[in-house]
Amino acid sequence: MKTRNRLYLIVVALFLLPFICATASADTAQGTETQITTNEFGQRFPAIHGDKIVWSDEVPAIDEIYTSDIYVYDLSTSTETQITDNDKIQEFPAIYGDKIVWQDWRNGNLDIYMYDLSTSEETQITTDESAQEDPAIYEDRIVWTDSRNGNYDIYMYKISTSTETRITTSESNQGNPDIYGNRVVWTDSRNGNQDIYMYDLSTSTETRITTNESNQLNPAIYGDKIVWQDYRDGGTDLYMYDLSTSTETWLISMSMPEPAGPYAFSDNRIVWQEFRNGNFDIYMYDISTSRETQITAHESYQLWPDIYGDVIVWMDDRNENQDIYMFTLAPAPELTPLDRTNNLKDYVENTLKVNRGTKKELIVPLDASIHFLETGKNAKAVFKLKSFINLVEKMNKYNRISAVDADYMIIEARGIIDQIKAQ
């Protein structure tokens, strides 16, 4: 998921260019770059989910003052669609499935709006006269930063029930929210510095993730992992907290003394913007391989990245205006069904956070499938993988494993089955 920090962070960084130090070079990305927009005005703040990219598109108005509308591009049909059409500013969109959210100035203050692509209906989510901004969305829930209480708090809206919930009640400021599943994360200033906090909607429990007295900000969450920007070592580092193991891990040092976000997080990949080679480029870090990759190498500025699966999007000023670009990562060498089944077993043994008995039950059909794959008995391997899927579904039904973990294991097991059948 993506964390949406404000553009002033970029501006601050520009003033600090003389202080930027050199850093080790990253790997060069392998894949295909595609220009998505060609309009002569600015297209900014892209976000991606599935096969759809959204952004804020500048519209020239009176006396060279610009407004902006929300647009969406469907990668499956190569079609661009205008979502909003009024003379105010709509910006910072986020998308999940068929639902797009953004912050909107049409009522004289910042409100959160939503558009449902499946019904072509627009909905005003917030109506308070204060500012609601920086929305994020996951499945049925929208979160944002809200100033109605004289400070900045985190609020949530559940689409299916049309109910609004206040998440934070501290008198200090909370901002930059992100959401995945039942977990909401944000930056929090209640301790005199900036820390990362999390709220679990399923247990109504708030947890302080970072306790270091330096600043930690711009969190993003995906699955059981939270990443953020951290200043504890005197520079800018990328850290991660694994909720399944309660462990904090340093990942990589940045070259910038000021925020290099926004960060976006999908699967095991984190992307960000960074001033390293005389301009801003997009970089990626893969947690599973501990490898950093430089995605863009053009001498212009590339900013505001987002990622979904193998696709990264950003805004790019190489054409003397800001356009939306996309990079599709080249696929890694395909793993065999045996490799993937061993990896799935490793996930159950070392990552899945359940009791020992549940792990043992899940490993039994995987071990059998591995044995049959090693001995060339593919039909029996498929049978055991189907048994594994049935077991996961049953455990999820009775709350022995989470829906997020169940979805991952079922999707992976089905993929292995499809791969075996295609051989």
In words, what does this structure look like?
The protein is α+β, with helices and mostly antiparallel strands and 423 residues long. It has two domains: 322 residues, TolB, C-terminal domain (Neuraminidase, 6 Propeller), CATH 2.120.10; 86 residues, Up-down Bundle (Methane Monooxygenase Hydroxylase, Chain G, domain 1). It is 19% helix and 41% strand. The chain is built from five helices and 29 strands. The strands form seven sheets. A five-stranded mixed beta sheet has the order 1-26-25-24-23, with no helix packed on it. A four-stranded antiparallel beta sheet has the order 2-29-28-27, with no helix packed on it. A hairpin with a 2-residue loop joins strand 27 and strand 28. Helix 2 runs antiparallel to helix 3, helix 2 packs antiparallel against helix 5 and helix 3 packs antiparallel against helix 4. 43% of the residues are buried.
